[in-house]
């Protein structure tokens, strides 16, 4: 079974569309027999997607730093839960366990994880696909800014397309999986 890392908010966000998109992504992952790899929390969109995958009988691997376990944020019912030392170890393990990466709506942590995977791809550290689920235009400004980075010469043309953008889970998974 292939595994997809999903980065998303530890909060639910302002719109109920974000939680619905997380559930839809969970259904799409299970529908394609893909394992979910995520941050291991039970709160926000992270908990929503994990709960949906588990409800449908899919596999979920969580990777969570001990500090967040101590704050009682770990999801109690995952297929596998890896407790790691810190956020650096978390990101490295999630990358190792995954065959591709998707960002759903989220905050600074989600963006940091997304950009680290894009940077690693640009540098040749991995050759795994990276995408964002652009729920209700959530990532429109980021997509525009990425075009600005290219236009201003800070992102090379061959790297400009590293971030795949789709508004529907199935379309994004189809592009990520290359089918």
Q: Which descriptors apply to this entry?
A:
seven-stranded parallel beta sheet, Rossmann fold, 179 residues, alpha/beta, 18% strand, globular, single chain, 7 helices, 45% helix
Oligomer: single chain
CATH architecture: 3-Layer(aba) Sandwich
CATH topology: Rossmann fold
| Rounded radius of gyration (Å) | 15 Å
Cα-to-Cα separation, first versus last residue: 16 Å
pLDDT under 50 segments (min length 5)? none
Explain the overall architecture:
By secondary structure, this protein is α/β, with parallel strands linked by helices. The protein has one domain: Rossmann fold (3-Layer(aba) Sandwich), CATH 3.40.50.450. 45% of the residues lie in helices and 18% in strands. It has 7 helices and 7 strands. It has helices at residues 16-31, 44-55, 66-70, 87-97, 108-123, 140-151, 169-177; strands at 3-7, 35-38, 60-65, 80-84, 100-103, 130-133, 163-166. The protein has a 7-stranded parallel sheet, sandwiched between helices. Strand 1 (3-7), helix 1 and strand 2 form a beta-alpha-beta unit. The chain starts with a strand and ends with a helix.
